[in-house]
TrEMBL record, chain B:
It comes from the Bacteria. InterPro entries: Na_symporter_ssu. The keyword Cell division does not apply. This is Putative solute:sodium symporter small subunit. The chain crosses the membrane at residues 20-41, 53-73. Residues 9-84 form the Sodium symporter small subunit domain. NCBIfam families: Na_symport_sm (TIGR03647). It holds the Pfam family DUF4212.
Amino acid sequence: MSQFAINLIFVGASFALYIGIAIWARAGSTKEFYVAGGGVNPITNGMATAADWMSAASFISMAGLIAAGGYANSSFLMGWTGGYVLLAMLLAPYLRKFGKFTVPDFIGDRFYSTGARLVAVACLIIASVTYVIGQMTGAGVAFSRFLEVENDTGLMIAAVVVFMYAVMGGMKGITYTQVAQYVVLIIAYTIPAVFISLQLTGNPIPPLGLFSTHTESGLPLLQKLDEVVRELGFQDYTADVSNKLNMVLFTLSLMIGTAGLPHVIIRFFTVPKVADARWSAGWALVFIALLYLTAPAVASMARLNLLTTIYPAGPTAEAIHYDERPDWIRTWENTGLIRFDDKNGDGRIQLYNDVPAFQETAEARGWAGNELTVNNDILVLANPEIANLPGWVIGLIAAGGLAAALSTAAGLLLAISSAVSHDLIKGSINPNISDKGELLAARISMGVAIVVATWLGMNPPGFAAQVVALAFGIAAASIFPALMMGIFSKRVNSKGAIAGMLAGLISTVVYIFLYLGWFFIPGTATFANVEANWLFGISPLSFGAVGAMINFAVAFAVSAMTEEPPQEIQDLVESVRFPRGAGVATGH
Amino acid sequence: MVEHKKNAAAYWKANLKLIWISLAIWALVSYGFGILLRPLLSGIPVGGTDLGFWFAQQGSILTFIGLIFFYAWRMNKLDKEFGLDEE
């Protein structure tokens, strides 16, 4: 059977499963549409949260980023998991007790202000829409590589499938498809990793293999990898970083950004009790950790595999001939994600770090520049081919990548549509709308959101990578501090909260625009985006944490100068702190 | 009512204490051992590298899981002790 047929079977079967679930789990009320009826088991919700959270970025890109950066990119591992500790202790249980449908619901009620609610809606929509673009483009890449269809056709198929289960089932349909998608994506991610770990270290558990001995050389795997990359002019894989302040702030931005992402928070509204919300965060992190503990192993092993493919006799000997390159390089060259340019005309593939410090060595070896460009994103997708695994594993990876992208896209779309139908339409435009009318409005806004997301996926604004930083920056600087202060302080009032959110949001967005271009328009950056220009060495991607601190400081200062919140608001804060009396989530 | 208020205040204080302890550990393993204190731990070898690298790529994640389950277990117990759990 051809590889194409195998891929088609795997992807087709997984899609049939999602549609089957959609037909089974239709939503009949807004409660079912927004919070899946509020009766989701905490372990089930943990699994759905894991799929909701782990996006195309986690599945496709993260291992590639770590492979390229080594220790320095550990921020992604700590940052994207540490946020769950904050969620479990600082947000999820209290917001579950509050018991309404959306994140702006809480901000609007706690700060007794439609203005605060609308600022929250704006932050939520900007953060979620920018995030959804990345998922749609990720789905497009997976479709065009594995199913040999045009990118746009692939996106349309993805949109139709998401439409079926998200519009019909709302949170109920999304929850159960996310559980199925988690199973598909975790199997797809770990099976190739187990095989590669076995091949390189003899240990079938990848996280243990990472710290084991490389069978072929008899050296510890990481030591072997350090030696190979050093010979090619790269920095040691395990090398420490010098700008620790930036690494700390980047990790912190990812953590509080994670905790402040509305599509993750609303998953905790679906469990029956406050106690369940706490357990559920733990289960979510267990399921996430299965992938996040495997990713660094995949990263180091795939980097070593790639370099030994190019230099079969070791990095100090001759590289392979272009004509003898393995099949996977040929397939990926077709996508443009691997490029070869024979700069010294010797017909061999020289891959090394083309920096001034290494120039002398390179010239002595007759090299005239790095000749192979490998896009980080292919690492996970090409992993089974690099390790010569059977065709069904490749089909599995295709289905897994799509599961990761679609599960996150659906969660984001629900967050967007509930903000529109519940917070904008019911909350401010037409408060007397019936439950049926609101359900219809939710379905229509979901449909519109899917169309917009698909269109943006087909016409990605050439800055997809930067906008993800924007999504995290906004969630970290505006949403997280407002929610936390709403729970932990009785003194912060509506003026303080609005001023704080705006200060955090604007400072973060301006700092990002200064270095990445105003509204991301190329060529409009005020300063070149290099470390020497950064304020105290803080990169624009790390600024969310600073924006959050500005938010806290401004909110407390303004609140201290203005009146106390009314007594009923202080009672509301008191009530979210204690689990007794939490019903299922409601809209009223 | 006064009794209830005192009870509630003690519960909230116990929760805050638990959060402070948990977040101190949270910060120690990630920002501490994983990033800032890595040079201090460089003498402790772990599979071809040092303990700081291990904390940055594995240890902190495992600790986070332990922390959340510990917090959930303690808080759910506190809910009952203070009679503030859901019926």
